[in-house]
Amino acid sequence: MSQRSCISALITPNIFQNALSRNPDNSDYCTEWLRRLAALSVRWYMLQSDFDQAFTFWRVYQLGGSAECQAIYQVMESKIHTLPITEDLLEFAGQFKLNFNDALRLACAFVAPLDVIVTWEAYQFTESARGRQTVQKYGYFNRSTETLLADENEAILSSIAIYGLSAFIREMSQQELPQVSLQVSPPAQPMFHLRELEVHSGLECTATVCLGTREGGCFQESAAGATPCDAIYRTIDRCVDACLELPVRRMVDFSVPPTVGGAAAEAEAMITVMCDRRYFETSAAHINMMHSFAHAYVSAINQILISLDLG
Q: What is the pLDDT of residues 5-20, one digit of tens each?
């Protein structure tokens, strides 16, 4: 994304709707993302129909959300400019092989024209395996198409960046912070690493984990859970709690982006963990999804330890 005084962005309604979750942890997590968005120097846009989904229905039907969520909602509502759906826009959207709503959003962003689209799931805007690979690796991708110049019968190649939420905030934060040269020490070896994992699934799922330490030690525990990943999550927590006193951890988000490369391709697990009112995002890839999840959660534990000056 090129540096500009003010980026113009189309934002999708799911970013707002997710903050209305009845699960307090999920609601707090999404509200924190909205707070970060509201602080950015961005000129925000939405299709009128998307604005109605995100704000009008919320206000008319009093869908709730915490007091902080409602306050951030109102701030973001005041920042958003709405764009109408026209016959020309509908016709232009027809060239994209996406679901109807995302095709409209993409067409709108090109026609406006805007710099970026910000959404929870950027891969939904790509039609190619290469685009999905790029999203999986970087959190965004660039999409190009031919558009007609206004009042001229001449086509030009236009490009727009489509970002996942966390990747967009990370990119904008890097642009807005001054560049400072620092003397950086080599990173320390992580406190924990996954040595062994065994999972049994059936009517009850159980996991046994051997968690290694950088000093050469090992903690082994077993636990049951509602799903294989739930059992892994609980077992790793038992290993960690056996040697350290940490604040309670809560898994507030777990997603698996589309896998590209066939049946033998690695599967990525992306998770967000809340601890001590802070959020830690990690991901890991492995040919076995349960191993991906376990490695990602161990990585989150290591991030938490660093944040608490214990790592």
A: 588 999 999 888 766 6
> Mean of the pLDDT values across residues 300-309?
88
pTM value?
A: 0.64
Total structural domains within the chain: 2
Q: Tell me the mean pLDDT in the region 21-28.
A: 66
Residue 258 lies in a domain: yes
71: containing domain: 7-176
Same domain for 34 and 69, yes or no, is yes
- In sequence order, what DSSP letters do the residues of the chain get, joined into one string? ----SSEEEEE-THHHHGGG-SSHHHHHHHHHHHHHHHTS-EEEEEEHHHHIIIIIHHHHTT----HHHHHHHHHHHHHEEEE---HHHHHHHTTS-S-HHHHHHHHHHHHTT-SEEEES-GGGG--SHHHHHHHHHHSEEEEEEEEEPTTSS-EEEEEEEEEEHHHHHHHHHHHHSPP-----PPPPPPSEEEEEEEEE-SSSEEEEEEEEETTS-EEEEEEEESSHHHHHHHHHHHHHHTT-----EEEEEEE-PPP-S-TTS-EEEEEEEEETTEEEEEEEEESSHHHHHHHHHHHHHHHHHHHTT--
